[in-house]
Input
Amino acid sequence: MATVERGCPVIWDRRLARRLAPEERPRTLVYPAIVRNTGLIAERPDPAVSSKQLTFGHINIRSLTPKLDDVRLIIRQNKLDALCISETWLTNEVSSDILLFAGYQVFREDRKKAKPGQRRIRGGGVAIVLRDDITASKLKMSPPKDSRLESLWLMVAAPGGQSAVLGATYRPPGEPVTPDIDALRNQLLEVSRHGKPVYLLGDINLDLIRPEKPQVAQYITMLQELNFIQLIQDPTHPGEPSLIDHVVTNMTSITHRAAAVVQTHVSDHDLIIVNAPLPRPKRKPRELMTRSTRDVNYDHLCLDLLQSNWSRLYDSDATSIDDLFTTFLEIWNAAVDQHCPLKSVKLRHPDRPWLTINDDLRKLQAQRDAARRRRDAVRTIESENEYSSLKKEFRRRIAAARVEYFSAPSTATEMWKELRKHALGPSQSTGPGDVPDAAAANRFNSYFAGVGPRITVPPATLPELSDALKRMSGSRATGDDGVSLHLIRRCFPVVGPHVLRVINASIITGRVPAAWKHARVMPIFNETFGSAASSTISAARRRAALSKLAAEQGQRAAAAKAELTRQEAETQAERARQEAETQAERARQEAETQAERARQEAETQAERARQEAELARQRAALEAQQLADEAERRQLELELLEEEEHGHQSSAVDRQALARPAAAAPSEPAAQPREPLRPGDRSSRTRDWVEQSSQYGQLCLHYDADISAATNVTAVISKLPAALALKWGEHAVHSDLVRPTLADLDSWLRRYVAAGRSLTTAAAEQLLIGGRDR
Output
C-alpha cells in the first residue's frame, strides 16, 4: 500500500483511474487538510468485492462531527458498503463538505426545525454513508403526522446486483409510542410497493428482550402483519442490556446468522451489521400442465366417447350429485387422457424479437464488445471514449427498437399476447387446495349454500345448453384438468346429453358438485390480514402492473386520438385562417380599388371644378375689365366734352384712318395723307378715338390732353411712354420724316392704337373659346 504524507490533498477521479494501468492505480486516498487530529489513511474499498452481497451497518453515534475519524475506522475495519447513522446531531449550519469519507457518499436527514412557539430539542438526525460506486436515489416519503419518528430511505443498486431499499431510522425514547409505530407501519407499506428487498436499520428504542411490554408487543405485531422480520438477537446497548437497535427486512429467507453485533467504543451503542444477499434474480423456467390438441383426431375421440359406458349416470342408485359428477369425470377423462394426455411443459425465457430481427443491433453489439476488449487491453482516452459512445448508442437503439416493436399497429388480442410474452411475468395462481384463508372461503360457501332453496330454476334443455356453450368465449383457456372449451365444443354432440344429465340433477336437488366450487385463486394483498405471504404482494403488484399497462395503453390510444383531433382542428383552423386572410385581402383590395376610383373621381371633379372656377374667374375678370374700360371711356368722354365746352382746340384727326380696320399686329404704320382738321369734326373725332382705343385709353388721354397745348412734336413725344416713343422714332426713320408734324404723329398713333386693340380683342375671344372647350 502506497503511503502519502499526512495532510496532503489527493483527488480521486474514477475516470482517471480507469485510464491508468492496474499497476499505476493508487490504492489509498488521503483526506484533505480539513481532517484534523488524525494520522489515519482510509483505504478505498476493493472493487473486486462481489456486488451480489452487500454489508450494511448501523450505529447510534451521538454527534457525528467530532467522531468522523472513528466512523472512518469502523467502515474500513468492517468493510461496510453502507453505514446507517442515527443521532447525527447535524443542523443546517453544518456543511456536508466536512463530512468526508474516502470512496463514499453521504446522504443526510437532519432533525426538522421547531414549529413557531416550540423549543427545538437537541439531537436526532439520521444519515447514510454509502459506497460511491453504488447508485442511489432518495425516496420521497410523506411526513409523519403527530410522530417523532425520523427516517431516511434510499433506493440502492450495486453494479451487476439487484436493487434494494435501504433505510435508516431513529425513534426518540419516551411516550407516546403508538403514533411512531403507525408512522413506521405506513413507511414500510409504502416502500414495499416497490417490490424490492427492504432493509431498515436504526435505533427504535423498543427493547425486544422484554416482549411482554405492550409497546413492544404492538411493534412485533405490526412487523408480523407486514411480513417483516427483525434479525438482531443480542443486546446492542451495554450496561443494562437492551436490544433497541434493530435490522428489519422483508427477506424472510434470511436467517439470524446474517446479522451480528460488533462491540465499539464510539458511543453507548454497539455496531450492528447485516450481510444482505442481493443477487440479480434469474428467471426460472415455468412448468405448465397442458393438453396438446394439435394432433387430436376428434372423430376418433368422439367415437371412443360414444362407445363408453354412460349407463352408470342413469342408474337409480346414483342419487348424489357428487357421485354423478365423479362418474362423468371418470368416463370423460378416460377417453380424453388417451387422445390428449396431460404434459408438463417448461416455458423458458422467451427471445426478444426486437433484438433478434434487427441485424443492425447485432452489428452494433459486436462493435461495442470489440471496443470493450480494446479498452481493457489499452487504456487510452480514445478507447475509453469509443467504448462509452458505442455503449450509449447501443442502449438507445435497444430502447428505440423496443418502442417501435410494441407501437406497431396490432389488434388488442395481439397486443396483450405480446405483453404477456415479453413484458409481464406469469401470474402465480394457487391450486384448489392452496386457498390461504379457509375461514373466509367457508363464509362465502355458507352464504351461497343457503341461497339455493330460495331460487326456483326449471330444468335445462339440450338446445339451451348448446346455445349457452356457443355464447361462451372462444378462448383456449383451460380449467384445472387442462380441458379447453374448444375441446368440449368439438365433443358436445356426443357428451351433451350426459352433461345435461348432471346439470339437471344439480338443479333438481339444489346442490352443486364440490368440484365445481374449486377455482384458481389470485391473492390480493390486504394489510388487514397478518398472514399474507410475500407472494401476495407480488401477485397484487402484477395485477396492478397489468391494470397499469391497460390504463397506459388506453391513455396512449386516447392521447393518439386527441393528438389526431388536435391536428385536424389545427388543420381546419389553419384553413379557416387562410380563407379569412384571403377574404380580408380580397376585401382590402376591393376597398383600395374603390378608394382609388373614388379618389380619381374626386380629383376629376375637383379638376373640373377648378377649371370651371378658373373659367368663371377669367370671365369675371374680363367682364370687370370691360366694365372698367366702359367706365373709363365714359369718364374720358365726359372730360373731353367738358374740354370742348371750354373751347379747347382739338387735334386733326383722320376719320378715314380711324374708320379703317386694325392691322393683325402692331407694326410700323404706313404714311397716310393727312386731311386738314375741320373745326366741326372735333367732337366726333374725339368720340371715335375713345371708342377705338378703350384699352389704351390712358395713353391716348395723355396724348389728347397735351396735343392741343403742345407747340411741337418733341413736346408731345416726351409725354408718351418710352416704348411708344421708341416705336414712333422707328416709324419716323423708316418713313423719312425729317420734320414730322403733329398731324403725322396723330395719324400714326391712331393707327398703332387701333391695331393693338384688335389683337387684344381677338386674343380674349380665343381664350374664352378654349375655356369652354375644356
Observations:
- The mean pLDDT is 75.
- The domain at 23-277 is CATH 3.60.10.10 (Deoxyribonuclease I; Chain A).
- The first helix runs from residue 14 to 19.
